Amino acid sequence: MGLVPAEDASPPTGPARPAELVGPTETSGPPGPSGPSGPSGPASRAADVVDVFVYVVVLGLFVEYLPAVISETFTLSLLTAVLLKAVLEVVVVVKKRARARFTAAGTAGGKVGAGLLLWAVLVGSKFVVLKAVDLVFGDAVSLGGFVSVTLLIITLLVSRLAVRRLLEGRTPVAEPVA
Questions:
Q1: What percent of the chain has a predicted confidence (pLDDT) above 90?
Q2: Residues of the chain predicted below pLDDT 70
């Protein structure tokens, strides 16, 4: 335990609570990305796990029904889903930044440049996914070509959105204690 300034030296009242249950107003820092309700909080981790589960199901369906999509084992499908989750999270952040540039552009030339950047991100991300899967898994996993990976990514993102909306507001993670 660290040193406590003299004005805060009064003993705590009530039972101690785990850090996960402390509400945003009771943390030492401001609420946000580093707090319990931010991206590293329990709700975010639960959403990430659900996303990976959705990705595994969608990937499994693609493996079953598209001959170009191959995964030798379920374990490889699960690991591929985790890799896709990581890569697509980065792609979504880059796409949002490109879209923000497009929205903020005030001139026609700026709109064209930002539009080309957005197009390059949308098209280039498919090749990034294909290369990442090839580098990590080699011949054990194949997502096919550009068309099949585009269909896969669109299906992954739409499925993720549908499941998140379905589960929205139904499972409270940890309510702050008043």
A1: 41
A2: 1-40, 43, 169-178
> pLDDT tens digits for 51-65?
999 999 999 999 999
Under 8 Å between Cβ of 1 and 8: no
Crossing angle of helices 146-167 and 74-104, in 10° steps, is 90
